[in-house]
Backbone:
């Protein structure tokens, strides 16, 4: 049973918000933290989990509502898991296009066999800002980094992420398909099971 009627999504990323909303469906009334504050908390954690908790607590504090945060990123095998928790800041805050250009450049001489990568998602749900027992769910999505961008859907690193089970890039998947396969979808399935929704 859903323990509350309303939930704030602790993300300022439009792409993520859309996906999370679609996955939650009408199980709960969803607000976005942007309705309450434009200030993004600094992501000072050393793990996806710590950053997700920190963002969830911040959103619960500014909204007075239970909050769900997503901290996610791309971990590239050849780079020892980088950019990882620093994925959004990979090109020093210049945005998705610059992040993607930097990744392609760093991997330009790396052969296909060594281009394995996974998207990682940690979801954190807190009932209130000081919740001593956040619910944490994780999801991974294995793929490979392309040599050039493909596709227009999605956001972030999607155009560079090859999805072997579909023979397409993540940015070539329909939103419905991505929302059934992705790291975020896997974490959300666990969260829904945990909440009984
Ligand atoms: O499905 C995805 N498809 C493509 N790229 C993705 C995906 N999921 C995460 N990513 C990338 C985007 C960003 O470079 C980083 C997340 O960084 P992250 O700090 O969690 O999110 P964010 O700063 O964009 O928004 P916010 O912190 O307000 O939720 O990983
Ligand atoms: Mg962020």
Residues:
């Amino acid at each position: 049973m859903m323990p509350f009627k309303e939930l704030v999504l602790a993300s300022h990323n439009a792409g993520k918000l859309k996906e999370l909303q679609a996955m939650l469906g009408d199980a709960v009334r969803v607000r976005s933290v942007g309705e309450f504050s434009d200030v993004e908390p600094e992501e000072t954690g050393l793990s996806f989990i710590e950053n997700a908790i920190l963002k969830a607590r911040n959103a619960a504090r500014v909204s007075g509502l239970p909050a769900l945060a997503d901290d996610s990123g791309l971990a590239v095998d050849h780079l020892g898991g980088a950019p990882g928790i620093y994925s959004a800041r990979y090109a020093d805050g210049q945005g998705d296009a610059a992040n993607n250009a930097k990744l392609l450049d760093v991997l330009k001489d790396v052969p296909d066999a060594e281009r394995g990568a996974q998207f990682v998602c940690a979801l954190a749900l807190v009932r209130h800002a000081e919740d001593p027992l956040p619910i944490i769910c994780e999801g991974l999505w294995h793929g490979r980094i392309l040599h050039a961008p493909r596709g227009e859907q999605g956001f972030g690193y999607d155009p560079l992420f090859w999805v072997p089970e579909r023979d397409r890039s993540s940015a070539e998947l329909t939103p419905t398909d991505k929302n059934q396969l992705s790291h975020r979808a896997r974490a959300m399935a666990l969260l829904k099971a945990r909440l009984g929704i």
About this structure: The chain has a mean pLDDT of 97. The longest strand covers residues 116-126. Strands lie at 6-9, 29-32, 67-76, 116-126, 135-145, 161-163, 168-169.
